[in-house]
Amino acid sequence: MTDSAALRRSAFPADFRWGVSTSSFQIEGAGREDGRGESIWDRFCSEPGRIRDGSNGLVACDHYHLWPQDLDMARALGVNAYRFSIAWPRILPNGRGPVNEAGLAFYDRLVDGMLERGLDPWATLYHWDLPQALQDRGGWTSRDTVAAFLEYTDVVTRRLGDRVKHWITHNEPWCSCMMSYWEGVHAPGGRSLPDALQACHHVLLSHGQAIPLIRRNSAGADVGITLSLHPIAPASSRDEDAAAVRRHDGLRNRWFLDPLFGRGYPQDTLALLGAAAPRVEPGDLDAIATATDFLGVNYYFPEVVRDDPAGGPMGTALVEREGVERTAFGWEVSPQGLVELLTRIQRDYAPAVIQLTENGSTFEDVLTADGRVHDAQRLSYLQRHLAALKQAIDAGVPVKGYFAWSLLDNFEWAEGYLRRFGLAYVDYATQRRILKDSGLWYGRFLNE
Ligand code: FCB
């Protein structure tokens, strides 16, 4: 058992990537500046009742203007990698067609700013801000959006591919499809399972088809995709609950991992989905299975399920374990879950490289009279997850990098600004950034 507080950076491999993670819509603001088009999240925010605090991303952390100080802060923390995403509506305001030079110029400056500070740029092409013009034509449910994504990817990687050498095609297809086209909680707020599954298929297809394009435009680059994955436990020792775990895992995890690793969609899950299953054309599964250089994993929490014949297409229900530690979001805190998840991925899929592209927590942060944020719970979460990561590495899982979510408090999607995940606190009234105790610790850990 590692004493997590005593953990040293030197216990990790010397070439380990230490990073922070961000995304465009959540931090940039400048929603109507320099020719940026409308995204599905702008539209969603404008619809009453969608965002819990009624907010939007028009200003957010104003990172569009304050990026030099944000990158300075990242450098001071001692990270050597910086994960950000590119806003498609800044580059192609109508989704396709005319390119907005001012949008490309912004990311040019940002990437140069990273390189000047010794931060290796890790760019995500799609972190959920689809141009609204494409949504008006069906969004990800339409196969044409795959071609639009390739057009966008080509423009971006031609421009930045000489300097950006790590590309993530998509962030968390579960969220950009299931939560967005089925559960109705993320933009565009759809409520159809068949739509969501079709959207997922197109997202995965666009990932696979983009890989050769990125490699052509960005010589020697590493390309991957980031999934949100969960270890899943049964609510009891009953056989029914064990079977429920398998079914839940089919849609939650294997639905994405299996096709990416060349196995096609899981047969047991397809059987349960019946007519809701996506239309797949010849060659699609081969494209989705195009080899990548790494698998990006975002880990936040484990899930516990029980058998529930009335519980949706998989016949399962989520159960809240009693008496466990939780974040302010209600997410169970389980560093051990990270070890379980990583060893499972390794056992079942054996990717050559795993990057932990997000991990973090939200708590009720308070800026105290001493001008500090004493976020002891987040600090402990961070330390214990790093200790868990070390345990997984020691067990032979090829994790090569860790990116804390997030550098800054930011727009937390349907929760607006109510949830703070940053290592730095953002005072939205003044846009002042204040490193929390967790951020100060991460900095000490990295700079030891
Ligand atoms: C992940 C998202 C990220 C952020 C964190 C808390 O699902 O990728 O943008 O919202 O959750």
TrEMBL record:
GO terms for molecular function: beta-glucosidase activity. The keyword Hydrolase applies. The keyword Hydrolase applies. Coiled coil: none annotated. It catalyses: Hydrolysis of terminal, non-reducing beta-D-glucosyl residues with release of beta-D-glucose. It is an enzyme of class 3 (hydrolase). Keywords: Carbohydrate metabolism, Cellulose degradation, Glycosidase, Hydrolase, Polysaccharide degradation. Its EC number is 3.2.1.21. It comes from the Bacteria. Belongs to the glycosyl hydrolase 1 family. This is Beta-glucosidase. It comes from Pelomonas caseinilytica.
